## 1
Amino acid sequence: MKLWDKDIQTDKLIEQFTVGKDRELDLLLARYDVLGSIAHIIMLESIGLLSASERLALHRELVNIHASVVQEEFQIQDGVEDVHSQVELLLTRKLGETGKKIHAARSRNDQVLLDIKLFIREELHRITEGVTGLFKILIDKSDQYRHLLIPGYSHLQVAMPSSFGLWFGSYAESLAEDMQIMLAAYRIADQNPLGSAAGYGSSFPINRQMTTDLLGFETMHYNVINAQMSRGKTERITSYALSTLAGTLSKMAGDICLFNCQNFGFLSLPDKFTTGSSIMPHKKNPDVFELIRAKCNKIQALPNEIDHIWINLNSGYFRDMQVIKESFLPVFVEIRNCIGMLSYAVAGIVPTADILSDSKYQYVFSVEAVNKLVQQGIPFREAYKQVSRQISEGSFQPDRSVNHTHEGSIGNLCNNEITQKMESTLKLFRFENKDKAYHNLLMFEK
């Protein structure tokens, strides 16, 4: 079944090539296609294109289809082109001619646009829940190890004192910043394209504000051409947000790999978190963190891939957009798995105590020595030269005490402020709007 069928037989090779992976990928969109159809038929009834009894019958069957999707029983049959066609086929089998009325005032273009928007909203909700969990682990670890010093590095050279509290907290705040970028992506997705049809609107007197409200959107894409052009652009912006988050996860995983190696020895991993070597019995490899790093680096390439498909297209719809789905839709599972695994593994990290007592780290305190001389009234440049001479002569004896008090330093981590930064951003997503809207749509008796 094809929604565009005109009783013309399509070449089988052409059909296989053009359908691509749509049947497989559209299963990810099925729930949202049904929810969008429920909102659409309520609107169609309001403008007289469906009778109350027709709307009720369609509504009931759509709720049943939604249940089959949730229970993972929904399938797109052989010979059916996509999820939109499958839903309409099921309705037509049950309701006859009434089932065929559901496509009035819609195009597959705005249907898939809507499905992707709803899919993105839900997936970003899941990601923020995962990030919130990881954030809490990092803040707790930061508080727990706030006084455990480690060397800080610049150019991979020993630089200045740091701490595990500072290190864990740095990634917590980075996640809070990542959520600000994610919020921008969510707001782009939180706009209703339904009613743009094939990109030029409809001669039916549709009520786009009604479907906007029914689906819990913050607003709509008002201009119908712009609504159509949001296909690709929305995925591109969302991929940048995912890439930013993936960058934080990758960098942290890389740090853990470095800190865990014998040359550093800043932390250890439980044996059950590591893998071995086929010939070296002593090996304990941090494979989980290496894979997180690689998977997140791959995710960071996604915006570039979408750019190369989308960026030079004219206004209006092109089938090129189908190719974006193949990389874009599965990426959410990939990044959620990375977040979950990093959360699980980081919780098991055991930092090493008394790291800076090793003589190879004595110069990490050189800046502390300079600053103490400055506090005694010696000009900074002269103090710098004095300590430099001591290091050159081999007479430098570090004072290993550290007293940093300013905001965001070793002695004043500002974890409460960082937590507030995260919480204030999370409140702005207003996920409850979509959740309440979906609940209401599925209560067809009312």
## 2
Amino acid sequence: MEKLQKKYIIAIDGPSATGKSVTAKLLSKELSITYVDTGAMYRACAYYFITNNIEINEENANKYIKDIDIKLNYFEGSIVIILNNVDVTAKIRTPEMSMGASNISKIGCVRDRLVDMQRKMGENTSLVMDGRDIGSVVFPNADLKVYLDADSKVRAVRRKKDLEKTGQICSLEEVEKEMQQRDFQDMNRENSPLIKVEDAILIDTTYMSVKEVAEYMMTLLRDNYIII
């Protein structure tokens, strides 16, 4: 197993269904470092609002954000999302929570709270973190930044398969429309929009397997002397 020479931060950004999370998990396992799924944190916030029938807006966010506690635990190699001491891992992977996460991530106080939590996670340990503003906002000095992208139709097919694994049946057209709407919101929000920063390495995953993407990133880590 390869080792990091010292504490390093690996930032993976990009839109949904480009392979961010699964690639990050593979790297985490290969390098024995912590994996942080920031998208799940925003989904958990959205879940709190939606299930409590609280409208997602700035006024309510300022009022209720202090009542939200999120922990990322690990069990048998899988990440477990704990919201206020309740496991919500399986409940936040729905199109409704995806759009809710996109909506709530536009609100400044929510981003400030979660970014602070994410930065604290990387203070004393090496980690790989994926999301939409990791290289631009959370860790602008990350040791390796990559931006994953893929053809929109391929992404929709991937997303549809993921939803079907959890028992959710949607048409490909519905999935693609939802993804396009979320992409637009994420890329055009005022607070921390989804962008490819100048020093991030673009990886087109359209015709690549998750294993191939992870292997390419391992090569980048070696070439930059981040692992030996």
